[in-house]
Every structure is written in structure tokens, then in C-alpha cells.
Amino acid sequence: MICERGENMNNNRTKKIVFSALMAALTTAATMVIHIPSAFSGYIHLGDGMVLLSGMLLGPMAGAAAGGIGSMMADLLSGYAFYAPATLIIKALAAFAGGYLYKHLRSRSRSGGFRVLPFLTAGVVCSAVVTGGYFIFELAVYSWPAAISNVPFNLVQNLFSLIAAGALLPVLLRVREIRELNRETAS
Questions:
Q1: How many domains is the chain partitioned into structurally?
Q2: What is the pLDDT of residues 23-75, one digit of tens each?
Q3: How far apart are CA 73 and CA 76, in angstroms?
Q4: So where does this one cross the membrane (predicted)?
Q5: What residues make up the domain containing 142?
Q6: Which of 25, 69, 126, 152 is the most buried (most CB within 10 A)?
Q7: What is the CATH number of the domain that holds 70?
């Protein structure tokens, strides 16, 4: 019995590591597939939806790693290496905040399925972290006009990412393995 429990824990840990790597790769891909340059050295993409989903599905810590690394890799592969360190930190914080809020707000719900209020709350906070994080970074690196000029683009990106994540989350929660991982993460 003890051996079986240890094997089950190793199996769950392996699944979480594999799923974290998959979410990092999906974050990279979603960031790079739709890639619309914005006003000042940035670009609009759907990767933030994957960052949010990483936090919600994997939990705050693993979600932060997947969202941060996946987003940073997209910057490195897309020629935005200058942004990569800031992206790692900002997106990791966004996934952590979104995952933490989603976990705690969902724990109050009796249902294991999709819940709109926890999703929207986590999504808005995640978006605020991303928009605020890049504003602070660009304010420090460039100037006030440059930093403020990217805010509307970041807000548009966050809106589309929130819509994409909202469309994907209910579908993903129907997959047994993801539902089990999410239930484990929520406890």
C-alpha cells in the first residue's frame, strides 16, 4: 500500500511536470502565431490567455513557471530578447496572481466546473499585472509617452486573451486528466 501511494504521487508529479512543459510550449506558440506589432517595441498576441490558463490549471507556482518561461521563450525566439527578462517576471507574476485568485475563489464553489466570477476576477487581475508590469518596465527604460502609448495595446491584447482563455477553460475542464489535475491543484 505504501509503495502504491508513492508510485501514485510520482505519477501525479510527472503528469504535472509534463503538463507544465506543455503549457509553456502552448504559451510560446500562442504568443508567436498571432503577432501584431504595437506602438512602441511590443506586439499584440494571444499568449496571455495561455498565461492565465497556466495559473488556473496548474496552480500558482507551476502556472507561474509555465507562463513566465513560455512567454520569455516567445520573446527570445521572436527577436524581442531585450524584453525577455521583464517578460519572465511579469508573466510569472500574472500567472501566479491569476492562479492564486482562481484557486481561492473556486474553493468556495461546490462545483468543479467552470465558474464565471472566479475566472473573470482572476483574468482581470492577471491582465492588470501584465499591463501595469509592462507600463513600469517601459517607463523605466523609455519614457512616459512611450510607456503610456502601449497601454491601450496591452488592454486590447488582454481583452482578446481573456476571451480566448474563457472559451478554452470550459472545454479543457471536460478532459478527465485536466479536471483531475485541476482538482488536485485546487486542494
A1: 1
A2: 999 999 999 998 787 766 667 889 999 999 999 999 999 999 999 999 999 99
A3: 5
A4: 17-38, 80-102, 114-135, 155-173
A5: 2-186
A6: 126
A7: 1.10.1760.20
